# Entry
Amino acid sequence: MRLPSFRERKGVFILMWKYIIKRLLWMIPVLLGISIVIFTIMYFCPGDPAASILGNSATPAAIAEKRAEMGLDQPYMVRLLSYLNQVFLHFDLGDSYFQNQSVMSGILYRLPYTATIAFICILLQIVIGTPLGITAAVHQNGLADRICMVIALAGVSIPGFWLAMMLVLFFAVKLGWLPPYGVGGLQYFILPCVANAFAGIASQARQTRSSMLEVIRSDYIVTARAKGLSEREILYKHALPNALIPIITVVGNGMGMMLGGTVVIESVFSIPGIGMYTTSAINNRDYPIVMGGVLFLGALFSLIMLLVDVIYAYVDPRIKAQYEGQQKSWRRRKKANG
Amino acid sequence: MANSAAVSVKVRKKKESQFSLVMKRLSKNKLAMAGFVIILILFLLAILSSWIMPYNYDEMNMAERFAGPSLKHLCGTDEMGRDIFSRLLYGARASLSLGFLATIISTVIGMAIGSVVGYFGGMADTVIMRLVDILQAIPGILLAIAISACLGSGFMNTVIALSIGGIPMTVRLLRGSIMGVRKMEYLEAAQTINCSVPRLIIKHILPNSISPIIVSVTMGIGNTILMAASLSYIGLGVQPPTPEWGAMLSAARTYMRDYSHMVLFPGLAIALVVLSLNMLGDGLRDALDPKLKK
# Structure
């Protein structure tokens, strides 16, 4: 096979960029949509923030004045537009009602904790889940398969926060090896990450196994075997690349699960991350924080899904071929015009 | 007359054989059958809990607070001396009905939207699918948290919060599977004999595109139960003193250092239900897999 020339590769590269930019632009309506949905949900929340800020002793007149000051007396559309304007044109998520701090700085201050947990979890999911699934698929119906699948089935069935509690009881309370809660050095992240990653590892193993099984049965694997390739070569050069697409999808979706999971896990371990910030704001009815937190995590998730789509396009030869086809027609057109 | 009767008998027989084929494949799968049996037993226990529980679920006995598991109290007692085993049995009602109700509501709504959108396509399809994209960009548990923060805690509010999050996935799933059958000849045939659109969708399209939905419902119930428990845990959802499993865990977290049995058993109950639902779902997926049809 002839290798693509540098010029051809450059063409594919440009088209890929076009694709990435198109996907990036599509994120704008998605983010607008998320903020409209979240704003609308919060708009219908009961309770008056003005009254709760001023406390029980406030007079109705003072409350009304505060409401006017906060813009709470405006109609829905006006408030929505001013919120969108504030978020998208000034990158400002508003100010917390009760903490003397803007929501954006509150989130950025807490982001490292959440990001660390999510990153370690996704790493664990890929590094442990994928080999587990491959092993299970290669030894289908064997002992290894049974063990892997029992672990995987348990993983998707156990509530993450309960597993976290059990891990704390065993490793922190009983053995005293690890700190039970709080933040500090790396050892503080071990239990939360293991608890949060378990479900991800399990679903990764399940998906890897089923897509590997589908590939292993196909004709080109038989051909590769007939050619006399070693099992190792067959597995890693022929089977795995073809099974990658569904596996990558699970990584992307798993990221959403991880971000959601950290919200609950942070509350088990009292980790001051974005999840803790958001959930504790619910109890105070500090709506700007709730809106900001959900919007921020939603945006993060969309960005990750974009990344997954781009990786797709690089990994899947069919998608790449589509671009090469486009590129050829593009060059032909150029030739015809010039 | 006799002829048409014979035809209808034949058709019915064929339909049954299709269904029984799936059931036969399913019944060969031991894991799936085990899951099915466990779910059935748990259902029975939940329904009969008022009669079979050894103590009343909110009967307090301060003399026996924090008692460990024993023959008298199978799973021990909690901070008010209530029997945890009885609370688990009675709580199965809340947890199971929460999971089933929320999933069924979201599936019915999602199927209605998905089938219309998948059948008609066009502008409505574009708009609805973009909306689905937006809702799916919010991680599920976060959406549920936001909605139940707004609605407040309580059983029905939690059901609503959990079911809204499930709608987009059903829409997407059903739409995809309807797109697959839309160009089939039997639909063209049905159209040529003047079959009305609702009949076409309900009688011809849905039965041929429903198998991914069946699997996703089974798995979805398990996921919903997990999410409901998480919601209760962070202080939303169903709240104590209602004996819901997640709420029991949430109440027990204060005492878990010293009385680990209080968190052990409710968690095991949740894991058991979700595990059996997942086993059944896996089995159903294999049984419904068209590649296995002979």
Q: What stands out?
A: Chain A touches chain B through 46 residues (CB under 8 Å). Chain A has 13 helices and no strands. The two ends of chain A are 30 Å apart (CA to CA).
